[in-house]
Amino acid sequence: MGTFKPIGINTVIIKMTDSAEIIRECAVCVTAWICAAECMCDGSVLRLRDPPGVLGKRLKDSAETVVIGGGCVGVSLAYHLAKAGQKDVVLLEKSELTAGSTWHAAGLTTYYHPGINLKKIHYYSIKLFEQLEAETGQAVGFHQPGSIRLASTPVRVDELKYQMTRTHWHPTPQFLIGPEKIQQLFPLLNMDKVLAGLYNPGDGHIDPYSLTMALAAGARMYGAQIYYPAPVTGLTPTADGRWDVQTPHGTIRANRIVNATGFWARELGQMIGFQHPTIPVHHQYVVTATVPEVKALKTELPVIRDLEGSYYLRQERDGLLFGPYEKEEKMKLQDSWVRDGVPPGFGKELFESDLDRIMDHVERAMEMVPVLKNADIINIVSGPITYTPDLLPMIGPHQGARNYWTAIGFGYGIIHSGGVGRFLSDWIMSGEPPYDLIECDPNRYAHWTSVPYLCAKARESYGFNNVVGYPKEERFAGRPTDRVSGVYELLKDRCSMGFHAGWEQPHYCHKPGDNTGYKPSFRRTNWFGPVGRECKLVMEGVGVIDLSPFGKFIVKGEDSHRLLDRLFANTLPKVGQTNISHMLTPRGRVYAEVTVTQTAPGEFLLITGSGSELHDLRWIEREVCDGGYHVSVSNVTDEIGVLGIAGPKSRMVLQKLTDEDMSDTGFRFLHCRSMQLAGVPLRAIRISYTGELGWELYMDMQNMSTVYQALMEAGRDENIDNFGTYAMSSLRLEKGFRAWGAEPAEFVGKQALLEIKAQGLSRRLVFLTLHTDDIDPEGNETVWHNGEVKRSRARSEHDIH
Is residue 452 reached through a cis peptide bond, with omega within 30 degrees of 0 on the bond before it? Predict the structure, then answer.
């Protein structure tokens, strides 16, 4: 067949028996063709496979799950499903495994994540990578020298301390270390600006190609079938919720399909009417030749992430590899692929590199690691990676199409691959997610995610890779979307707006003399005083808040009672009444909290949080289909505007605008009424979301401005004013209100809940008061008691004073 030999960093000469000689660069994996067969080299083994178009085996007629896409994420899912015992797992890859973004990835692996849920994904991935070679017999090239996130400003040190408060209740190893320890771990650093570091032992990097091949070997070992080249040419839903998956080699009938196609995700989604908000971004990294100072080291250098320099750097054999994240004005999108699709045949190609675009970061890296100044660059890799507007992937079942799942939008697919494969496998096998990962729910996007918005947010998010991760972070590119309430124009100049599922909603409102503008901090900042003022307003007077981002559904029909009895772990409210109910998973876990109002016999208004709109709608629609219920479910979120009015003087203001009896006896707590306010028809619900007397007013969106202005005029004598979600959250947390009713129906999760009750509870929700100066808990901090970590959450009394 031929021989090959390494000749330098990532470069292999392959000598064929016919004397043909091809130079391959494995880190770049430039496609090479030899005697009509494709050459794939991992630096130690030459592999040849059939020419493209030849499948090599007969396509199955049916499958339990068809995973579409042969990158590391898709192959991981096939591996986990097969290992979990699912029969008939099929993976279809259009060209070859690792084509797309996997093959050219830098392969970084880290326990670290600023969020609390994705830490679990990272943790599982690393533990899987550690044992995968022993399980499959396939080398994965996993290096674990650790990593250090470098802080070179006081604000960065605050950021590291903030992250340390949130880590100890998780098994992830993480330490705040000083300059001396950093120098010991990475002796080639210029320490002039280094103040501290966040050290994660066990971090490192892995060879993406070898990882994917090991997962593929494991998937086959457990019974999965992997077909390539097998491009999907069509997707047709069947009446019973299954899918016909068309390929040039035949059609597979699948119980479910999973879109794991990387930067082809948008095209695959378009086959069934979706416009997935994913876009390819040009990411570059630089590989050097041997650096004598690196070669002389006895142990491998940890990966460093220079947060201010906005780049990562790791050892690559006896040289270095570093990759920057440019600011949004310099980074490059491949937006033509969004408009025109990925060019046919693109798979293991690269973009033209542009060193000038990243020179600012190169210079910062040379300043921090001086040996780079004399290093020879042997390669600049510029390839596409996929971004979503918020930089998080889209993981899970998709609303609007039965049994269609996504695993797309991975800017960090290598470290996510293992954990996401396990997460989705557990969800598919058990019918519910193993833990909360709603920030990655694919249904967090909707019609408002336009192409201009997607491009603006992707630019912003790429530049945000290494910006300071403040609490209550806001990002402003692409805003506002077309999703604004009927009072947005009246409030936009008076309030600091927050972004909620496409909506602009007041976080807090400012007065003349206030220090205005977005000024994030790890300490008390400019919103602290105004929020305290708003809390006092609602506790002692009357305030108005825009609550339009709530998700709103109308359920009606002959089976509406039966459906909602099945969905909710609570007795349904009578006509004209409201309650707070929970949808549970089969294991008795809370899937969603919903306000349920029966507005007319058999007609219900369901209200959920803004970030849960399509997440909850999908759950409801699935139950409707699976149970064959005769109901209609309408999403009226964009059509209905909502104003909240709260405080001890709220009744007085409302009474001025209506002939309805608004007294305690005339309008009771958790009751609903259709009425007119200032001549506008609306529905009012008396509810206590702040711990004070309050109502929610539901009306046509176009009438919001009229009702709002009428309220503000009627409340002049009561000093009515606006308040925002920061004050609302503080007040409702202080209230700590929750109620569970007797529930006779056989609702989802009832048996599991009874078993949990019989076993006794192992955890309780408690409220803690902390005496602090100018640093307040934000949530998910570690709580220590008698030298042990308690898994709880802390709040500060200063949130409301």
Answer: no
Half-sphere exposure at residue 671, Cβ-oriented, CA atoms within 13 angstroms: 12
Q: Say which residues have a Cβ less than 8 Å from residue 659's Cβ, sequence separation at least 6.
A: none
Helix (H) or strand (E) holding 438: none
Q: Which residues contact 414 (CB under 8 A, 6 or more apart)?
A: 72, 102, 105, 107, 108, 109, 206, 208, 211
Sign of the CA dihedral running 371, 372, 373, 378: positive
Q: Quick one: how far is CA 174 from the chain centroid?
A: 22
- Dihedral sign, CA of 509, 512, 517, 521? negative
Q: Which residues pair with 333 in a beta bridge?
A: 281
Model confidence pTM above 0.70: yes
Mutual angle of helices 208-221 and 413-430, in 10-degree steps: 20
How far CA 455 is from CA of 330, 444, 794, in Å, comes to: 14, 17, 38
Cα gap 120→110, rounded to integer Å: 11
Please compute, for residue 169, the number of CA atoms within 13 A of its CA located in the half-sphere on the CB side.
Answer: 16
Average pLDDT over residues 487-508: 96
Q: Could you give the angle at the alpha carbon of 441 between the alpha carbons of 406 and 252, nearest 5°? A: 20
Express each pLDDT in 547-600 by its tens digit.
Answer: 999 999 999 999 999 999 999 999 999 999 999 999 999 988 889 999 999 999
Radius of gyration of the chain (CA): 28
Give the SS3 label for residue 762. coil
Report DSSP state, residue 705.
H
Cα separation, 352 vs 68, whole angstroms? 28
